[in-house]
Amino acid sequence: QWGALQDQLSSTIGENNYKTWIKPIEFSGIEPGGVAVFNVPTNFIGSYVSQNYGDLLLAKLSMLDADVRRLKFQVANMDARPAQPRPAPAAAPTPPTNDLLPGAPLDARFTFDSFVVGKPNELAHAAAKRVGEGGQVTFNPLFLYGGVGLGKTHLMHAIAWELRTHRPDLNVLYLSAEQFMYRFVQALRERRMMDFKELFRSVDVLMVDDVQFIAGKDSTQEEFFHTFNALVDQNKQIIISADRAPDEIKDLENRIRSRLQSGLVVDLHPTDYELRLGILQSKVQNYREQYPSLQLDDGILEFLAHRISTNVRVLEGALTRLFAFASLVGQPITMELTQDCLSDVLRASDRKISIEEIQRKVAEHYHIRLSDLIGPKRVRNFARPRQVAMYLCKQLTARSLPEIGRRFGGRDHTTVMHGVKRIEELRSQDSQIADDIELLRRALEA
Ligand code: ADP
Ligand code: MG
Questions:
Q1: Its pTM surpasses 0.80
Q2: Closest listed ligand to the CA of 112
Q3: Is residue 153 lining ligand 1, measured as CB closer than 6 Å?
Q4: Coil, strand or helix: which one is 174?
């Protein structure tokens, strides 16, 4: 299997890289705990491979054997092997030893190909695509933010994969802010700050996921700030994600906040119905390739796209469960089966946010009375918040337009539709409205 994998690697990273780095190493076996062990002729080759091709190796290996979690490179006496080309050790800088090498494995499923683009994520997708091309650094950092399960990690991995393929010469490092902190603390403890700094400053593209994690962690922030500056000074691309906008992250030093804002800040909006449907359809299509006999009643995907929350992870989980259940009982997937199998998920999304809750929050936010929000007056001071509330009802609940209309003082469904459309337009033109909606949404979903 290692032979087959080597062949694949050779075509992915190019003949030359392959000869220099991969050919000299030898797969030795898998240790308990899912540690894939490689024999390497020198420490230097080991650290280079781990740093530059570690994620790729890990991803490929874990496709062959799902248990593989980590890689280990050990210097072994490889005399039995034919002589290998080696980089001249004298010219190489003293390599930092292995366990400090950062980087988290990339998920093989998180590619641009599998990312479904819709209104709520098109900007983020376009920006990520651009960075993935690995051309000139035009915005630095790229800051992606949005709620849980909206595709931030997916996009970051997709960028990394893309760079791997198109720019194998670039040294790309992806890790979570938590891992960054962990490495940092470890380096401090082991008095290896020089190694740590050298490592992080030697990357060409740095991606740090979930940066909100380091808020309030002072010395980690400090180190992050220095790393960040050093890389930006060298015109190296940085990509950051967080669950909220830079100015909403509490306990973050101001200089870091402003650094984070200095590039391109894009958010992933909560999914809308169309995007959810698109995602479900693409998952079903993948599934069909494996199980051509899959039977699925029409309308089930639409039902799920309507009923399940904005979080894509939950949506995917529901679909997987449905497939598993259906194949277990050997029945076609009908509406009854769906409701049976997913009753808890559906209940949870039902109970989620009510129209009253939205109305209350919106009235509060705009300092108007609930009765004015729902009532007949058409003055702008009431009409705009009313439209915002309708929009949120459409986005966050599974209620139909006529039903929403009824709950707003018996208005017609076309009035609701018009309101929703209006806010959709305004949202992209009027940043005040966009901010209001974002705030309200977070408050409601909290
Ligand atoms: P986040 O990091 O924002 O919390 P993830 O990137 O982990 O979210 O996404 C959660 C799950 O949803 C992943 O399995 C991801 O593949 C999937 N997902 C999210 N957005 C999309 C999309 N637009 N198209 C396809 N899958 C998506
Ligand atoms: Mg994530």
A1: no
A2: 1
A3: yes
A4: strand
